[in-house]
Amino acid sequence: MNILYVANLIPYPLDSGGKIFTFSTIQALSKDNEIDLICFYEHEDINAGTEKLREFCYSVDALPIKVTTRENMPLMMVKAVKSLFSSKPLGISKYIVPEMQALISKKMQTKKYDCVFFNLLAMYSYCDYARIPFPLRAATLSRTNRVTFFGVIPRLPSGSIFADSADGEPRYVGSARSKAEKRCTS
Description:
By secondary structure, the protein is an alpha/beta fold. It has 7 helices and 8 strands.
């Protein structure tokens, strides 16, 4: 299966929990699939990171970004003020850049992907550029680092509720809106 993996930060070096999770997920997915990674980088040694990731990824594309508030205070203050007048919070809007939109669109035009994996909710804002019906949202890894479940999430109503079934797989049980409507009418 061809997977386009969209990550918020290059997952190497392994110096944070998020990077370790992303790296482990890519490592597990690469055993049976072809992974193309698209991500941002800020401080990381991009050459060492891409070299290590090419052991597991068919291609690695990394774009520079400034997302650390402490080091980029003036820029982040401007983004914070802009987010007050936007429908997207700062945690999402700080990752939205035209270069990433263009890169995802280009990748989707040049290769047929079976799914797109977004490692973070903030990266899901690029879903419209992926142009596939069911983006891959999550994968659960067993203790042997084998992928045991792909969480394929179709476009469902806002406030959708999922619950674990007896076999451990999530199942759609309704939406928060429909449950509230039922309470009001009964």
